[in-house]
Amino acid sequence: MTAATNQHYDLDPEIFARFLDPLRKYSSGLFDADTTSLEQAQRRKLSFVAGQLRLLGGERILDVGCGWGSLLLFMAQEYGCHMLGISPAARQHAYIAERVADLGLEKLVRTEVAQFESYEPERGGFDAVTMLGSVVHMAPLDAVFAKIRRALRRGGLLYLSESCFRSAAIRAAYDDRPGTEFVRHSIFGSGELRPLSELIAGAESAGFSIRAVHDLTSDYRRTIECWLENLRTLPDSPQRAELLHYLEIANAGWGYTTKHYALTCQKSR
Amino acid sequence: MTLAVSTTVTEIVAAELGRAPESLRPDTDLRAVEGADSIKVLRMVAKIEQAYGIELEDDEIFGLTTIDQVVAVVDKAIAREQG
Question: How large a percentage of chain B has pLDDT more than 70?
Fold first, then answer.
């Protein structure tokens, strides 16, 4: 939305290295009874995304808001997919480029520094599009969904997961509370938490079929508990204090004011 | 406008409306053809999409009135499909 959107993601990557999992996936993991570590949960989540996209191998995937590239590298390594990641945070790209070179994935993974709102992906050029926690930074929704649908081939799939206000009424009550304002201005630069109904309406208006909705709220709570545990072991710093404050606010809200949903949509009749 | 597309579209439209293809002109207002209704128009669109392996956009479908217009949006969709 604005350059400020990504100030948070352009912080020194080292602090993220110290509280995220080794893939540096900065979004919800997926836990089950056998999941014991954050890294396992993140890999399990990426496999879940692959399942939602019904990947067989070799697909062309656009990852909008690619973060530190966990999904790009995973889908390239595990499925031989051709990955294009976009994100406006320049420091993330330098990190991904290093990882791509280390893993010898140059033929499969490329990234571009870009704001999705002003980026025009190749029409029909992708079998799948992924957006993990990035649509919160984008507006207007209708234009975003229309652009994704144009980028997909017929039958192509969109996987989107996002934190949402629990309802329109909760949004009206909490949108201007200090906690919300802090997260919006200090962390996101800008960001619009919406109720799920708005995301679904946006996908519908663009002509998508809705294939599945999954509730990942408890998974995100547990993911953030892991991040908080890691952060608490670090020496005090302003960055650490801000991150702790942000993540504690986030974890207090799950199920009361906020939910985390995954949405799978298809460009189909 | 492609002649082949025009012929095929006319045949599909005629079959759906229960008319002889010769009785339909490129500028016939399909809504005014006796027995035409929105359900038949949607069936016609589905058959055309299947015949060409294309998908028309909502704003192309809703508002079609003549065979000429149908042919134009089909041509456009075929071009889109071929990138």
Answer: 98
Asked if B83 and A124 come within 8 Å (Cβ–Cβ), the reply is: yes
Residue B22 distance to chain A (closest CA, Å): 32
**Which residues of chain A are within 8 Å of residue B55 when distances are taken between CB atoms?**
154, 267, 269
Residue B31: the pLDDT is 83
**Interface residues of chain B, partner chain A, Cβ below 8 Å:** 49, 55, 57-58, 80-81, 83
C-alpha distance from A267 to closest chain B C-alpha (Å): 10
**Min CA distance, A52 vs chain B (Å)?**
23
Does the pLDDT at position A2 exceed 70?
Answer: no
Structure tokens at A181: 């304002």
C-alpha to C-alpha distance for A263 and A214, rounded to whole angstroms = 7
Q: Which two tokens stand for residue A18?
A: 């110290």
Pick B3-82's CATH classification: 3.40.50.1970, 3.40.50.40, 3.30.365.10, 1.10.1200.10: 1.10.1200.10
Residue B76 with chain A: CB contacts under 8 Å: none
- Domain coordinates in residue numbering, chain B: 3-82
The complex scores an ipTM of 0.72
Give me the pLDDT at residue A264, please: 98
What is the pTM (predicted TM-score) of this model? 0.89
